[in-house]
Amino acid sequence: METEKNKLKDNTNSKKFKKVLLMGYNGANNTGSETRLISIIEDIRTVLGKDVKLTIPTLNEKNLRRYIEEDEHLKIVPIPSIYFFALKEIVKKQDLVLLVEGSCYMDTWTSALLWAFLWTTRCAYNQGIPCIAYAVDSGELSRFNKFLVKKEANKTDLIITRTTYARERLIDIGVKAPIVSTADCAFTFETKLEAKNSLKKIWNSENPASTEGFVGMAVVDFHLWPVVIRPWGRKVNLYKWPYYFSRSRSRVLRSENLSRNWAREADRIVELHSKNIIIICMEELDEPLAIEIKNRMKHSEKAQIVSAGTYNASQITEVLRSLELLITSRYHAGVLSMKASVPQIGIGHDQRLKGLYKDIKIEKELFIDYPEDNSKVEVIWKSLSKKVDQLIENPKHTKELIRKCYQKQVELSLNNKKYLKNFLFEHEDVMV
Fold first, then answer.
1. Taking the CB of residue 432, how many other CB atoms lie within 10 A of it?
2. Nearest-angstrom CA–CA distance, 15 and 345
3. Which of 197, 205, 338, 428 gets the most CB atoms within 10 Å of its CB?
């Protein structure tokens, strides 16, 4: 098999890549995944032509069809929750496999997602089909999953990471496959014309008399994750059988404390700075926390929820770019708002947002690590309040910093398709 693999790679120039698999977190009503998938489809069609046959597997066909149109050149393929056999059969029919999920090499959300990407990589390797991880991230991994990543990711022909930090983490684990770093595909995402003024339209439908500015909060319940595999469990904790959210009395209490602190900060911003609050759900799964925050607010009439369950990626991106300030626990909220130089503060619970902020050198100024130790939580929220006040009162320096960061990230993001084209047709040394 190794000889066959090398032979295939030696003849890459003459290979015709007519069928491409896009393996990711597709169909989850997740704004980040939506923007990435749309941007990656454009990249592939730029490199391989409009007639390339694309296959997109999904656990939720209905959601995926909200933003991806199936036609003679693009096929949506439903797969079961226990996906091993189905993915193996799908991979067999491809000329090229791309791993397109940003949260590729991490088990923060669930080991099952990580295993799906590693299994796809193994299937491609065994079939002698090139496999590329396309602008992906790495993060926290259990000891067992580090072993799996080291073993299976080495079978990837090229890994393109979206931060240098992600590249370094994979190298530290022991991954020897070629790895280059660029920036996330969503930096080149273009919104649709009809999405212009989305925030004004959404807000005015409920609050026609309001004229104050807007502060956005892109929230995520850290205490739901990871999703775990169980044969049965409480229906309220079911993600999609056999996957259940991690819930316990302690986790529920911490979730309640999280919503309470968000609500308190939202009310403080309304009272001190006379701003409206937009609670942004970058994934539909964030809605329960968003609803809880709004319900806990004293000034709930000054808040509105904007969710990926209702609005598409273009609309949410336009909302993000219309803010005066963004407080975000979601990676792609930070990414998508940068084009408008929106000042932002990150509250991170994993390595993705931290990695982005480290790459663009704003980690010390604008990033807050959310602690595992519950006794330190109050300190974090006091620190956040201080940063919020500073940015609302004096945003100029940070806006300029974000503007420069965005320009650099767009340049790096454009390298994604350059590396893809180089690997497929020129096959020069891609290491940097």
1. 12
2. 46
3. 338
* pTM greater than 0.90: yes
Q: What angle do CA 298, 296, 304 make, to 5 degrees?
A: 80
CA distance 108 to 102: 12
pLDDT given at position 425: 87
Domain CATH number, residue 336: 3.40.50.2000
Whole-angstrom Cα distance, residue 419 to residue 432? 11
State the helix-helix crossing angle for 287-296 and 249-273, rounded to 10 degrees: 50
**Residues facing 369 on adjacent strands:** 348
The reply to whether 115 and 160 lie within a common domain is: yes
Tell me: do 240 and 177 sit in the same domain.
no
Using the predicted structure, report yes or no on whether residue 15 has a pLDDT greater than 60.
Answer: no
Contact between 75 and 54 under an 8 Å Cβ cutoff? The reply is yes
> Distance between CA atoms of 166 and 417, rounded to whole angstroms?
19
pLDDT for position 3:
43
User: Does residue 156 sit in the same domain as residue 230?
Assistant: no
186 and 249 in contact (C-beta within 8 Å)? no
What's the pLDDT band for 399 if we cut at 50, 70, 90?
A: very high
Domain that holds residue 177: 2-188+411-426
Q: Does 402 map to a domain?
A: no
User: What is the predicted pLDDT for the residue at 366?
Assistant: 92
In this model, does residue 209 exceed pLDDT 80? no
Q: Is residue 400 part of a domain?
A: no
Cα-flanking dihedrals φ and ψ of residue 30, to 5°? -120, 115
| Per-residue model confidence (pLDDT) at position 205 | 64
Are residue 120 and residue 9 in the same domain, yes or no?
yes
Considering the domain boundaries, does residue 106 fall inside one?
A: yes
Given a contact cutoff of 8 angstroms between Cβ atoms, the answer to whether 106 and 114 are in contact is yes
CB 116 within 8 A of CB 87: yes
pLDDT by residue (tens digit) across 344-379? 999 988 888 998 998 888 888 899 999 877 778 889
Residues 377 and 269 in one domain: yes
Total of domains in the chain: 2
Q: Decide: helix, strand or coil at residue 214.
A: strand
Q: Are residues 314 and 336 in the same domain?
A: yes
Pair (172, 209) in one structural domain: no
Q: Which 3 state secondary structure label does DSSP give 181?
A: strand
Within this chain, do residues 173 and 200 fall inside the same structural domain, yes or no?
no
Token pair 């809605």: residue: 287
**CA-based Rg of the chain, rounded to a whole angstrom?**
21
Mean pLDDT for 90-102 is 97
